[in-house]
Each structure stands twice: as C-alpha cells, then as structure tokens.
Design a protein that fits this description.
The chain is an all-alpha fold. The chain has 9 helices and 2 strands. Strand 1 and strand 2 form a beta hairpin. Helix 3 packs antiparallel against helix 7.
Length: about 210
C-alpha cells in the first residue's frame, strides 16, 4: 500500500494501522521538507552561515564549527509543530471562564493584572498542567521525525537525542541489546519525570 494509492473508502479494519503510519510519515516528511527549505533558502541560512555548507542540488550539509545551532533549530522546529494545539487548548480554556466571574472581580475593583493572577491563571491551571506533561513527553519522542529527515543526528552528535540514538543503534547498527536497554532507560526516565510532575506540580493546580 502506498500513500498515493490509499483510498479510505476501500480500507478495512486491518488497513487502519498502516494508514495511520503512512499519514504520520507523510506529516514528518512535510515538516522536514519545510525546514530543509528554510535552512537552505530562508532566514536561518544567515544563522547557519558558519555552521553549514550548501552542497550540490541545494542540499544542506552541516559543519562542526557551530554545531549547537542545529540543535536549536531542531528545538524550534519541534516546538513550532506543537504551538497550534497549545493555543487551541488555551483558547478553549479562556472561553470556558464564566464572564460573571470576571465582571464580579471588575466590580470589586480588581485591575487587569490582579484579575489575571487571581482568577484567569488559576482557572486555566489544569490546562497548563496537562500541556506541560504532554509537551514534556512529546519533547522526548516527537523530534525524532525532524532529526531523522533533516540532520540524521549530526553534525557529529550535536542532535543525537536518546530516542534517535536507540533507533540508530538498533535498526541501523543492529545492536539490539544496547538499543533495548536504552529504550527501557528512556521509558523509566519519562515515567519518572511524569510522576514528579504529578507529585509536585499538581498541588498548584486549581480544579473547580
């Protein structure tokens, strides 16, 4: 089954997982193409002038002089893909705040800053907590597609994050033992950080 030949009306239940994987792969490829275009032709070419060499066909080849710039751009690209749904969640949360509460605070003489710190921010704190946990988990895994399509972990090991290293060790280097151990450590790390957030950060969340 190919992306071009995928016809959803003819899909069976068994085809759904493969179709979802194709959609996810296509999304990763589109992100990578967009960022490759920015790196080769756009604003970031100035930032990467000392870190990159533009090879034949416009391909971007990373150097080592300012390798940290590549990691910064991977972070920016990954964060950009998450920006939309974060904004959507906050818009929904702000619209759910009763207007009568804001009006009552205004009548009591609370200024804009006071209304935000005492009313708005506590009421959207569940959304903030949810997004912090979700974005933390995504930060470990969602950057894989951008790194695999754009930098391949380079220059050197500048963008070799843990999830990409275990993939490279297991599927390219065929070192399945090391890759399996790294995956267990990564899972334990993510679970541990999530538990810490629920243990300490959730105390400051206001549920109504």
């Amino acid at each position: 089954m190919t992306a071009e030949g995928l016809v959803f009306r003819d899909m069976t239940r068994e085809d759904v997982p493969a179709g979802l994987r194709l959609c996810r792969l296509a999304r990763w490829n589109q992100r990578a193409e967009d960022w490759q275009a920015l790196l080769a032709n756009g604003f970031f070419r100035v930032a990467l002038r000392e870190a990159t060499i533009v090879g034949s066909g416009g391909a971007v080849v990373y150097g080592r002089r300012l390798a940290w710039v590549a990691m910064i751009l991977v972070i920016v690209a990954t964060a950009w893909t998450h920006l939309g749904y974060n904004i959507a969640f906050y818009i929904a949360g702000l619209l759910a705040i009763p207007a009568s509460v804001i009006e009552a605070a205004d009548v009591d003489g609370a200024g804009p800053i006071r209304r935000f710190t005492a009313i708005v921010f506590p009421l959207v704190s569940p959304i903030t907590f949810y997004l912090v946990v979700l974005n933390m988990v995504f930060a470990f895994f969602e950057s894989f597609g951008v790194i695999d399509a754009v930098t391949k972990g380079g220059p050197g090991d500048a963008t070799m994050i843990m999830v990409y290293k275990l993939y490279k060790d297991g599927f390219i280097g065929l070192n399945l033992g090391s890759s399996g151990a790294q995956s267990v450590i990564l899972m334990a790390l993510v679970i541990g950080l999530t538990m810490l957030q629920f243990r300490f950060a959730e105390k400051k969340v206001t549920y109504r």
